[in-house]
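BUG: 3D viewer hangs when loading the predicted structure for this chain

Environment: internal workstation, default settings.
Expected: structure renders.
Actual: progress bar stalls at 90%.

Input used:
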Amino acid sequence: MMTDPIADMLTRIRNAYSVKAKEVEVSHSKVKKSIADILVREGYITGVEERREKHSFLVLNLKYNNGQPALHSIKRVSRPSSRRYVGKDDIGQVLNGYGFLIVTTPKGIMTGSEARKAGVGGEVICEIY
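Structure tokens produced before the viewer hung:
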């Protein structure tokens, strides 16, 4: 049994970029789909496809710019053993705006800047740049 499926997803993405894979498969969940949709919207991956065989899973199409990964770092912030929550006024920037946070809020999963604009805080899932 996996204790942190989101960390597993982020590790699979990181490892796929390190071997220059075109796509990576992760098990399906609503949270993972929301995170993948944000990565597509922010331009770090090119697409997400849901597939169903024995189990449903997501196929993430990775993006490269001139042979270099579009995503330089993806880091899990809040873990099951150590949750990290931020208030609406405490949501900071990542690398002076070059990166972003993914935050789960009462209004759904969104980037840190979207949460700031919506005036809500929540649990910081990961930071990306």
